[in-house]
Amino acid sequence: MVWGTSNRRQRLPSNWAALRALVLQRDGYQCVARSLDGVRCTEPATDVDHIKAGDDHNLINLQALCSWHHARKSAREGHEANRAKARPMRRRPEASHPAGL
């Protein structure tokens, strides 16, 4: 399991349960994710997610999501992080023209 080595839970503030409850209540216990045409997801919110990655636990950086949208967002962020860590492709030096041009 990928989360087996994560310290994410330890980095949450001591009042996380209260923050989570406030976010779920604020968002009406409904997922706030929207489709491309702006329609809000109708699934119940089961997770509270950080909008911007990191440890900013302010209410304006937290959102209620259904488990499907949360997993999709987390997977996208993981792929982006892996891509950023990947070594840039090496390019061969351009060969000079044999005629010296």
Automatic annotation (TrEMBL):
The keyword Nuclease applies. InterPro entries: HNH_nuc. Residues 74-83 have a biased composition (Basic and acidic residues). One of its GO terms (molecular function) is endonuclease activity. The keyword Nucleotide-binding does not apply. Residues 73-101 are annotated as: Disordered. Keywords: Endonuclease, Hydrolase, Nuclease. This is HNH endonuclease. It comes from Streptomyces natalensis ATCC 27448.
